[in-house]
Amino acid sequence: MPQMAPILWLTFFSFMLLLLTSITSSMYFQSLESSSQLSIKSKQLNLLMWSW
Q: Which of 4, 12, 19, 33 is in Cβ range 3.0-4.6 Å of 42 for a Cys bridge?
């Protein structure tokens, strides 16, 4: 169906945008952890992200 193609591209684009946002946010929290007291929590989050 030709009408389904734009919806498919939109969902794919939104998924890639979400993935990029999660990667950048994890990098931001990783840089924050050096000057923060939440190092254990961010390490647990990192472990969860890597296992997923």
A: 33
